[in-house]
Amino acid sequence: MKSIKQALALGLGLLSYSAIAADKTITAENLATLQSVGQVQVSPDGESIAFTRSVPREIYVEKDGKNWGELYIVDDEGVERPFITGKVNIRNIQWSHDGAFIYFLAKMKGDKYTALYQIASDGGQAQKLIGLKNTSVNYYTLSEDNKHVAILAKKAKDKSIKKLKDLGFKAEVYEEDLTNQFLYVVDLAKADKPLTPTAWDIKDYVSDVHFSPSGKNLLVKTQPSALIDDKYMRSQWHLVDIDNQKVTTSFATEGKLGAAEFSHDGKYIAILGAQDKHDPATGRLYIAETKTGKVKEWLPNFMGHVSDIEWANKRNELYFIGNIGTQSIVAKIKASLTNYKTVVKGGKFIAGNLSISDSDKTVALKGNTAMHPNEVFMLRGKKTTRLTDSNEWLNDVKFAKQESITIKARDGIEIGGVLVYPLDHEEGKRYPLIMSVHGGPESHDKDGWLTAYSRPGQLGAANGYAVFYPNYRGSTGKGVDYSKLGQNDYAGKEFDDLVDLKNHLVNIGLVDMKKVGITGGSYGGYASAWGATKLTEHFAASVMFVGISNQLSKFGTTDISNEMHLVHARSYPWEKWQWYLERSPIYWVGQSKTPLLIMHGKEDPRVHPSQSMELYRYMKVRGKTVRLVYYPGEGHGNRKAAAKYDYSLRLMRWMDHYLKNDGKEMPAHELPHADNLKAKKES
Question: Which of 300, 356, 507, 532 has the greatest number of beta carbons closer than 10 A?
Fold first, then answer.
């Protein structure tokens, strides 16, 4: 693990705002080294927790790519044992029933395709358990007796396809040339060589699967096709008899659909879903009877959103994580009741990824706070213990104050968010503000770790900014009705909320009203474009990321048009062309006075890169201050090390230039990557 001095030294000489390393504040350079816990799974006896750790590639040194995923085990005293580390990508970890092995998916030892591996929990070499011929294992789950494994995979690739492409036959049939994903069930005793198992006769795309406790049934989630719109809006859970491979029960739910899990006696299934087809999120908790297929809401009128579930073993009691406002709770509820008992109160940490040992002795989960990203936590009885420290250098960093705020919007609706004060904030002094708007809009920012490559957080605070994360109407965390408040009102009252929140920060004496910047990705990018055009008088700088500029063309170029209709717009463009146009930033470009930096992944399927091109061209032709940066190979958000780091530098430089410096000319489009590479080699 790098020391704080080593980590901070990476920033020396790169950019002016990273030269404050001596004060032990977060810089763009050491932010690029930030590690976090991905998945946690507790052993059957509750004594050990296996987890994956996400490790960024070293900028200017390693070949570009996504974060590495390493495998570790930590005991209840916080002692870690590295199992598989380095240039690996471990995912989907699961313990064997006897605790002797840990299973995982990975490409190892020159694998061309992802395979299922196992490694002994007392150490040793990983062994390939199942590899498929000419295709990857995308997901797996084990039966309780560990004798069978259910696998989700696409059919083996036809070798002739590559040959035909080499000969020039590269025609792509849009949304019809999709590859289905199939279900396979394999006897582990026979899995000693690459397999070509027979897919089950389920016509739809299979996206998830679980064994029943008895091993007689599978809980299978399907959608009509591989389209993401079908995943969001047309998924369904079924019970399938293993012997005859026939669906015996389908659970009637409407709208978005999330995870599901059998109770340990097999009588019930807990399901995360939506209240109806217009509910933007999967935050409702349902309980279904396996015998009858009857489904009912388990937590009616819950004024929050449930994000994860896990059954306890000894009795029909479900643990769940509930996001309420900007906090999260861990709670449990019995199958026969509709009221719950809170186990971990809000304000302790932001929780995720529940895992419970067979004895119910230990609940493992991951959690983050304002001072660290996700780490492994252990819950025993009423005591919660943090077990890992993935970024020891953060222990020496000086953090800015962070708190949740709530106000009334101009029409009386409650809105709020999370405020990060400038580091060493002085009462009575006004500061520049960066407003970082979340996407969705069916999402919300929590009072936990809020700093990332595209979200300034503590990086902005260390450089003299107040940073605010608004939870405007339509955000989750306050129940279904609240999450629907922005529907049929694109960029209306939801973005007026941003102005009301900005004005509040000005009125309390914290923010300089002439030095307010706005940024965000996806729907937050839409807000940023709206802030630079329609609301231009309120924002002195804007950075738009994978954002929407034209609601008319957005509908025709996205992969979620059905979701847009059902849970966002509640109408079609052809029903009111002019309204859609006037809710588009391009319509308001003529009045724009806000310098706008636009950044976008060139392979984005959600918000087509042409959305950024449209706004850029509209502004450029009309003589506005604008710059467009594309990231080749990136989609709806940057995932590779270099693109994330580059984005972070450009975001902060744009804000510095227009909120702190004279802002007369655009900053140079080049970044000092060549100089930094040379300096790195010399060091």
Answer: 532
